[in-house]
Amino acid sequence: MSAFQDDIEDERLTFVVPEATAGRLDKVLAEAVAGAQQDTHSGLSRSRLQQLIRAGMVTVDGVVTEDPGARVTAGTELGLAVPPPEPSAPEPENIPLNVVYEDDWLIVIDKPAGIVVHPAPGSPNGTLVNALLAHCGDSLSGIGGVRRPGIVHRLDKDTSGVMVVAKTDRAHRSLAAQFADHGRSGPLERAYLAVCWGSPLPRAGTIDAPLERMAHNREKIAVVARGRGREAITHYRVEESYGSGASADSAGRSRTRSAGKVSGGEPLVSLVRCELETGRTHQIRVHLAHKGHPLLGDPLYGSGYRSKENQLGDVAQGALASLARQALHATWLGFAHPETDEEMAFESPLPDDMRNLVEALQNL
Fold it and tell me: Which run of H or E residues covers position 13?
C-alpha cells in the first residue's frame, strides 16, 4: 500500500533505463514516464514523482528507494506504483472529538482506535480531519494540503492516543520542525504503551534498525541492512510481564512468578513502554516484531503468534478478542508551544479496551 493507506490497488509501471542514460532517479524516471506517457499519467510531473519516491512508491531493481537524488544507470529496472486519483477536499463531519487541550494555535486530541487520521482513497470520509474541520472550521493550518489540514504527525488507524494538530501555518512549521528533530535538541517526547508477546531482552534497551517498505507487499514495513532504508530508533523498557516468568515492579526491579511460584521461564506477555527517537511508519510494531516480540492483536506483524493465544486463558483471550486491534497506545506527547515556547506535556491513560486486556493479563 502507499503511504496514504488505501484499499485500492495501485497501478504498477515498469521501466528499464536506456543505454547511455544515467543520473538522478527523479530525472531519469520523469523522462521514462514522459516517453511512455498517456493521458492517464499526464499528472506525473517531476515534482509529483519526487513525492511518490519519498512515499516509498518507487523501486530500483526491486528495492524500494526513497531518495529522489539516488543515482541510476543504464539497464536498471525502475518500478513505479501510481496511486489512484486522490479524493476531493474533505467535508466537515459531526464526529465527536476528545479534546485534551485547545488554544488559538493548536489542538491536542486523544484519538480513539478505529479512526483514520486523514482522508485517503480507501477512507474518503469519517476521518479525524473531517471531525477537525467541523470543530475548528477554517482555522486549521493549510500547510498539509487540503486533505491533511493541520496534520503534523499521524497515528495508525488502529493505534489510539494523544496527537497534536496545528491551527496556524506558523504553529505547523514550528511543530513540524520539532518532529523532524525527534527531540534530539528540543523538548519533543513521544511515548507509547505496547503489549507484546514474550519479554524483550535486555528489559530496557534500544532498537536501532533501519526500515523500508517492502517491494512485494507494500502494506508492510521491514527491517533492512544498514545503508538502506531510513534510520529508525526505538528506546524501550519492560514495565510488567505476565504469565510464567519474570515481571517488573514500578521500580524496574525484576521478580518471578507463575501461579504464585518462582519460575525461570520466559514471560508469556509483557507491557512495554516505547519512546521514539524517530517516527517511521509502523516503527514500534516492526521493531518489536524484529526482536521476536510482536504486539498482541497485530494482524500484519504478529499473525504467526495466533497459536499462543490459547495459553492466555479464557478471560484474557476474551479481552484480546474484544480489543480487535494491535495493542498499541500513544500515552505521552511533549513539545514546545509554537507561540510561547512553553514546554507542554500531555498524557493519555490506556483506553478501556487495552486496560481490560492488561487487567486480564495481570490475573494470569
Answer: strand 11-16
Q: Looking at 6, 26, 156, 353, which residue is catalytic?
A: 156
CA angle 109, 116, 146 (to 5 degrees): 85
26 has catalytic annotation:
no
CB 190 within 8 A of CB 180: no
Runs of H (alpha helix) within the chain: 25-36, 46-54, 128-136, 169-181, 283-290, 314-323, 352-362
328-336/160-166 β-pairing: parallel
pTM score, whole prediction = 0.74
The dihedral sign for the CA sequence 111, 117, 123, 126: positive
* Residue reference for cell 517526547: 189
Residue range 302-344, pLDDT digits in tens: 988 988 999 999 999 999 999 999 999 999 999 999 999 999 9
Q: Measured on CA atoms in the order 259, 261, 266, 270, is the torsion positive or negative?
A: positive
